[in-house]
Design goal:
By secondary structure, the chain is mainly alpha-helical. It is built from five helices and five strands; from the N terminus they run αββααββααβ. Strand 1 and strand 2 form a beta hairpin. The termini are far apart.
Length: about 250
C-alpha cells in the first residue's frame, strides 16, 4: 500500500486552474481570471493605514455636539448694561452674572470666581516661565554658535531672531526682541540697515568736506537733510520690537 497521500481535487477557484471550464463567462460577480484575488493572498496586503480608524456613529455625534456647544457659548447676544445694551458672548454674559452675584455677597459665586481665576493665572504663569526659560536657552546657544563660528573663521550662522536682539530681564521676567523676528522681517531689516549705512557714509563724507572747505562754504542744509533721513530710518527700525514674555518673575 502506497504511503503517498491521495491526490487532492483541483481547486475550481484557482484562476490558473487548467481544469476550469473554458466556457467561463465574464459578468456580474464573475471578474476576469487575471483580476481575481489569488487564494491565500490578501486583497489589501498593507492593511489599513495607521490612525485611520473609522469613526463610530457615536464619536461623530459627540464631535458635532462639541461644535454646537462652542458655537452657542460664543454666540454674540445683546445684554442690558444699565441704561445701554452691549453685545457679548453667552460665556461672557454668564461670567458677568456670576460676578454680579459674587459682588452681592454670594459665597458660592465668590469661591467659583476666585478658584477659576486662580487656576487660569497659575496656568498662564507656568506658560510664561516655560517661555522665559526657552528664550534664555535660545540666547545662550545662539551666542555659543556665533562665537564658535568666529573662532574657526567661518561665516556666522543666520539666526532669526539674533541673540543680540533678544533682551532678557530676569528681575522683571521680561523677554523682548529688538530686531527682526521672522525671515521676512530680517529681509526688511537688512535693507533698512544697508540704507542707513549708506546715508551714514554720506554724512561722514560731508562732515569731512565741511571741515576741509574754506570759510563761507555752507554744507549745513545737506547735512541736516541726511540727518533727517537717518532719523526716519531709525524710526522704521524701532518698529521691529515685540514683547515675547512679560511677568515670568
Amino acid at each position: 500500500m502506497s504511503s503517498q497521500p491521495p491526490d487532492q481535487p483541483d481547486d475550481p477557484g484557482d484562476p490558473g486552474d487548467p481544469g476550469e471550464k473554458e466556457t467561463y463567462e465574464v459578468g456580474y460577480g464573475k471578474p476576469p481570471r487575471a483580476t481575481r484575488f489569488q487564494t491565500g493572498r490578501s486583497g489589501n496586503p498593507k492593511g489599513r493605514p495607521k490612525g485611520s480608524r473609522r469613526k463610530r456613529p457615536g464619536d461623530v455625534a459627540i464631535e458635532q455636539l462639541k461644535a454646537l456647544v462652542l458655537e452657542e457659548a460664543y454666540r454674540p447676544m445683546q445684554i442690558r448694561d444699565g441704561e445701554t445694551w452691549v453685545e457679548m458672548s453667552t460665556v461672557q454674559a454668564v461670567l458677568r452674572a456670576v460676578s454680579l452675584k459674587a459682588m452681592k455677597g454670594d459665597q458660592r459665586a465668590q469661591r467659583l470666581i476666585l478658584d477659576t481665576v486662580g487656576g487660569i493665572e497659575t496656568e498662564l504663569r507656568r506658560e510664561r516661565i516655560k517661555s522665559f526659560e526657552t528664550a534664555v536657552v535660545y540666547k545662550l546657544q545662539g551666542a555659543h554658535r556665533i562665537a564658535e563660528a568666529r573662532s574657526r573663521g567661518l561665516p556666522e550662522p543666520t539666526l532669526v531672531p539674533h541673540p543680540d536682539h533678544l533682551i532678557i530681564d530676569p528681575f522683571a521676567g521680561l523677554v523682548e526682541v529688538r530686531g527682526p523676528y521672522t525671515p521676512e522681517e530680517k529681509k526688511e531689516w537688512d535693507e533698512l540697515m544697508a540704507m542707513r549705512a549708506h546715508v551714514g557714509g554720506q554724512l561722514a563724507e560731508l562732515g569731512a568736506k565741511r571741515r576741509a572747505a574754506p570759510r563761507g562754504t555752507n554744507r549745513t542744509p545737506q547735512i541736516e537733510a541726511l540727518r533727517s533721513v537717518v532719523a526716519k530710518i531709525d524710526a522704521e527700525l524701532s518698529h521691529f520690537h515685540r514683547v515675547l514674555v512679560k511677568g515670568a518673575a
